[in-house]
Design brief:
Largest sheet: none
Structural class: mainly alpha
Radius of gyration: 20 Å
Shape: elongated
Strand content: under 5%
Order of helices and strands: HHHHHHHHH
Oligomer: single chain
């Protein structure tokens, strides 16, 4: 029998993670089994356990692998903070709207992951993803305030929540609920532009309460 190389091992591990995305998305984290994942990957159950101790260990690495792809491109220094904030929102909307690891893992974390103690490692990943996204948005909002593109009395927490809600609403309507069958990306762009324009032209609605 030929000796298994490190490259072979990495390919097998990657195939397991790929299979896990498909199986867990279809069945949910609570109902997917290591045997299901092994079958989808075309390997033995023992081979899966040779790489991962348990299902949550596997799912954790699956999520971490996908979310490392969700890194915005380097910011163009010529853009204002407000322009960069708009560009980054559009980038993530398109990234999450296209079939692939990021879309599948976010659907798993938000729709297929019950809030219980067993799933805490995955829920922690979801919370950390949101925290990092929120902190990045808040930094750009503060910068836009300092540049005079947003008023000094804007409620940063409320403004951040508005942008999260804008993104969530568009994404869930077009890609999770699937209300639109054609030209979804063009519609997503139009909706995001409109929502962001409202954010920039009527920021007084998000002002801190006296």
């Amino acid at each position: 029998m030929a000796r298994k190389t490190k490259e072979d091992s990495l390919r097998t591990r990657s195939a397991i993670l790929d299979a896990a995305e498909q199986v867990i998305l279809r069945r949910g984290i609570s109902y997917a089994t290591m045997s299901d994942i092994a079958d989808a990957a075309g390997i033995s159950r023992g081979a899966v356990y040779g790489h991962f101790d348990n299902k949550i260990d596997l799912a954790t690495e699956m999520c971490q692998r996908a979310l490392t792809l969700a890194i915005p491109p380097e910011r163009d220094p010529a853009l204002s903070a407000l322009e960069a904030l708009h560009q980054e929102g559009m980038y993530f909307l398109k990234l999450c709207g296209e079939p692939g690891p990021v879309q599948r893992v976010l659907q798993i974390l938000y729709m297929q992951c019950d809030c219980n103690e067993d799933n805490k490692p995955l829920l922690d990943i979801r919370d950390d993803w949101e925290r990092q996204s929120r902190e990045g948005i808040e930094v750009m909002i503060r910068e836009a305030m300092s540049e005079g593109d947003l008023p000094a009395d804007i409620d940063i927490h409320l403004a951040t929540l508005y942008l999260f809600s804008l993104f969530d609403g568009i994404y869930s309507t077009l890609f999770w609920v699937n209300r639109v069958k054609q030209d979804r990306w063009e519609i997503a762009e139009a909706l995001y532009r409109a929502g962001f324009a409202a954010f920039t032209t009527a920021p007084g609605l998000l002002a801190k309460k006296a």
